[in-house]
Specification:
single chain; alpha/beta; Oxidized Rhodanese, domain 1; five-stranded parallel sheet; 5 strands
Length: 133
């Protein structure tokens, strides 16, 4: 009799843990879907369309020398290799779209990944960078 009670208690415990894990996984999945985070590389034409959004934050992550040699429109220069890069990026509005580019796409890709980790909701990286502009 004691064995049956012990077996019953153990079975109920295992089933309860499984249900709790399933519920947690479903809740986590729903939360991830509702956050609708966008982080993608876009073509030059799509980048231009995104620039029409008045809320978009245009960021050039090249060095100041590269930036001074030419840049896109009203871009703000935040050097990816600069000592204050992360703190300067953190000052941007995480809920507004960020359009980012560098010279060829390497630094801006790394910057976009970092911004996603920092909680930015929509980050668009110019395919091929300024060289493609």
């Amino acid at each position: 009799m004691k064995k049956h009670i012990l077996l019953f208690a153990l079975t109920v415990s295992v089933i309860s843990c499984g249900d709790a894990q399933t519920t947690k996984t479903k809740a986590q999945s729903n939360k991830e879907q509702s956050s609708s985070v966008v982080n993608k590389v876009v073509s030059k034409s799509e980048f231009k369309k995104l620039m029409e959004n008045k809320e978009a934050q245009l960021i050039d992550v090249r060095t100041s020398g590269e930036f001074n040699g030419g840049h896109i429109g009203n871009a703000k220069n935040i050097d990816f290799n600069g000592t204050n890069f992360k703190s300067n990026i953190d000052k941007l509005d995480k809920n507004k779209p960020v359009l980012v580019y560098c010279q060829a796409g390497g630094r801006s890709g790394k910057a976009a990944a970092m911004m996603k980790e920092m909680g930015f909701k929509k980050v668009f990286d110019l395919e091929g960078g300024y060289a493609n502009w």
